[in-house]
Amino acid sequence: MPTSPCGPGCIESVDQVSGARMLLRLTGIAGVLFSYPVVHVCTPARSRSRVQRRYARMLLRCLGIRLRIIDNGQDGYGAGALVVTGHIGWTDIVALAAVQPVGFVARADMIDWPLLGGLARLMRVIPIERERLRELPEVVGALAERLRSGDSVVVFPEGTTWCGRAYGTMRPALFQSAIDAGAPVQPVRLRYLDREETQCTVPGFVGVDTFASSARRVLATRGMTVEITLEPVEEPGEDRRELARRCERAVRGAELHHGHGWIEATTTRVQDPETAAVAEPAVRRPRRRLLPGRRHRSTGAQAVSHAE
């Protein structure tokens, strides 16, 4: 099962707004979420994409998050594209929908979340149960069918959330849908920045976080920007593992550091899961006999807490 060692120690606080500003943001979010279903039904089908994008951008503004899109000459994700990116938190879904209306493969319990659950249903989220891996072929099949129909769908191949400074390996399973459908793959680099343009971990939905605690932290933050960079499109090819590695290189660029052993994440040092999986077992040294009257002194490595 994909797990992330990121936890509360990865999240550092930044400038915060007043309680009155938080209340104003909550009021705006309620207005957006309650009005959208009505507007969606009343809008002609040919115009719904524009309305969905506009509402996603309004929701970002109500959350206090600015949007910056670096498209490298592209105009959105294109039709029928598998969009792949790293996963930081629930705000990723709003940010990615603000570029272009898309579907998502997301955790199944998101349908029951307050506020975002109704939005997830309207966006036709494809639910995935992380604990039921036998259902994965059905998810891949449903995803391939959506791609063949011309829908663009976002997947988070890491399989879990990370803090944004540290990240995991992109698992190849969901890439099979693009190969089956012959669909282009759009790698997306997603980052959250604070007022000083430093990478920000506030949106990280990690460790013991609940939706309520995460939402409260995001709503209280001032001056946050989400930066979305559309990297060049990748052709699906025939090997999902090779496709996953190509997309991982595109998304991480110069930051790609699998194989270095440790990833610095704010105040926390987390072990790179790829190197941990292949680490050689420690060699047991023969125990030396101690002279009478002397105590054995043990040595140990610094412990690092690992929260899922």
TrEMBL record:
Molecular function via GO: 1-acylglycerol-3-phosphate O-acyltransferase activity
Compositional bias (Basic residues): 284-298
Superkingdom of origin organism: Bacteria
Pathway stated in the Swiss-Prot or TrEMBL entry: Lipid metabolism
UniProt-listed SUPFAM superfamilies: Glycerol-3-phosphate (1)-acyltransferase
Domain spans labelled Phospholipid/glycerol acyltransferase: 81-193
Keywords: Acyltransferase, Lipid biosynthesis, Lipid metabolism, Transferase
Ranges where the record places region Disordered: 271-308
GO biological process, one term: phosphatidic acid biosynthetic process
Protein name: 1-acyl-sn-glycerol-3-phosphate acyltransferase
